[in-house]
Amino acid sequence: MRYIDDDLKNKTILITGGAGFIGANLAFYFQENHPEAHVVVLDSFRSGETLSNGNLKSFGHFKNLIGFRGEVISGDINDKALLAKLEGDYDFDYIFHEAAISDTTALEQDLMIRTNLNAYKDLLDMAVRQGANMIYASSGATYGDASSPQRVGVEAPQNVYGFSKLMMDHLSRDYMKREKIGIVGLRYFNVYGPREFFKNKTASMVVQFGHQILAGKNPRLFEGSDKIVRDFIYIEDIIQANVLAMHPKENGIYNVGTGKARSFQSIVDSLQKELGTALPCEYIPNPFVGRYQFHTEADIGSTMRGLGYKPRYELEDGIKAYIPEIKRLFEEEVK
Ligand SMILES: NC(=O)c1ccc[n+]([C@@H]2O[C@H](COP(=O)([O-])OP(=O)(O)OC[C@H]3O[C@@H](n4cnc5c(N)ncnc54)[C@H](O)[C@@H]3O)[C@@H](O)[C@H]2O)c1
């Protein structure tokens, strides 16, 4: 579905983190709906390098871009020489900034702040010099255990990831006051959908439970999962928010969720209904207590007013739309 009328002819779009989950979906949105736009993807594709928690340092994967016909550049946003070359080579109109250490459980504070915050400042300065609009990924993790519904302005991050995103928002507000470009920060809540599979263990529990069930294994949930609730949002609605953010009524920082809190148990129940199974669930202790969000629910009032955003997918709709891809991945990548 196309969300804006502008054909984007002669426009150049940079998508950082474009070989990752959300960035790759954005790349295909523009290819399919605005084929005259020139789309450049920048990503530090996976190298096998891991963080101390055992997860990959970057999750970019070529398979997320199979079928993409725009330009692809492998590189690190921390590389100032690369950013200077990009600035010389292109005249960007829009920058969708998705590149980040996206792993909320990563413990490397130096790398997290350098990559998520300091490199973002370099990109923001480039956007100002080029007169490009900046649309960047913030996160619901900025809220930590702040009470629901979460509203912009009341944050309490519980990990360095959430802290780095909150600092991006503070920096952006400062630029919004003195610069003329469009700047929109989007606080995504828990996103799920096609092209997340290569995030491995950091992919959403929707795909992970889906594959446990397809393997005939009992779904393993944390104890109390009927009461651990999150605002789970389908990728299509994330794309909608990003595209609407190209022409905001007002620069700002906006929540992107459904506005509804749903339990992890309801994910499993909905998957089992769609897959026609009735496997018993197993409950295991939650190792992340103390740095774990037990209740998230986005207040999306200002997003609806400021961007014209209206979520189209409830949890059951998103899962239903996602099932064929969950099955395909299971056949082609898991088995
Ligand atoms: N998926 C979610 O639920 C969610 C929720 C809130 C916020 N976010 C944010 O949205 C953005 C996209 O997340 P995603 O889910 O697509 O994650 P992802 O890990 O799939 O995508 C991030 C991409 O950035 C790339 N990258 C990492 N470090 C880089 C670097 N130094 N230079 C260049 N590229 C680099 C990775 O290779 C990866 O392809 C991230 O900023 C993330 O923090 C995601």
UniProtKB/TrEMBL annotation:
Pfam families with a match to the protein in the record: Epimerase
Top-level enzyme category: isomerase
InterPro entries associated with the record: Epimerase_deHydtase, Heptose_epim, NAD(P)-bd_dom_sf
EC number per UniProt: 5.1.3.20
Segments traversing the membrane: 12-30
Domain NAD-dependent epimerase/dehydratase: 13-257
Keywords: Carbohydrate metabolism, Isomerase, Membrane, NADP, Transmembrane, Transmembrane helix
KW Cytoplasm (keyword) present: no
Entry protein name: ADP-glyceromanno-heptose 6-epimerase
